[in-house]
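Service request form, structural biology core

Requester: graduate student, group of Dr. S.
Request type: structure prediction, single chain
Budget code: on file
Notes: please return the result as C-alpha cells.

Sequence provided:
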Amino acid sequence: MFEILVNEDLTDMSEGELDKIFVAHEEGIKRFLGRIPLGCIYATFLAGLYVEMEKIVGRAAKGLIVNASKNRGKVAGMAIRKRYEKKYGKMDEDRVKMVARNMLTVWGKCFGWGKMNFKINDSEFILEVEDSLESTGFIKLKVKREQPACWMLLGYTWGLLEGLFNSKFVGDEVECRASGGSICRFVFRTE
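Core staff response, request fulfilled:
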C-alpha cells in the first residue's frame, strides 16, 4: 500500500479502486491501511458540532479545530516522508507534490470529504473541493456562514504539506460553499 501511495499518481483512480487498495473491510469495521479504524459521520453532525462548539468557546472554535487537524496532518506527512526517505532516499519536490495529491485524493474518494482538484505551481498549492463534507453539512442545516467553514480540511491539508515538505506554510480557505462560494478553495504558500 505504501509503495503505491508514494510511487503512483492516484488522482485518476476510481473510489472503488482506491478503496480496494487502502481500506480493509471487516464485519462492521473499515480500516485505513488495514489498521486505522474509519468511521462515517453525517455532514450535518460535523457542522452541528462546530456550531455547538462556537456557542461554548466562541471564535476560538475555529482555532481549536484547525490546530488539532493541522497537528494530525503534520504527523501523517512527517511519517510518510520519514518512511519514504528510509526506503528510497531523499524525497524530491515533485514526489512530495504527488504524495500530497494522493493523500488528499484518498481523503476525498475513500473518506467522503469531497471531490479534490489540485493546482500546484512554484509558489502555491491550491486545493479546490467540490461538495466538501464540512460545507455540505452547513448547507443541509441551512446555517449560512459569514466566513469559510471547512476547518478540519484546512488544518489537515496545511499540516500534511508542512510534514511532507518539511517546511512552514501559511494556509487559508479563501472560498467556501457554506459562506456563499461556488466551491471550497484553499491556498497554501511556503513562508
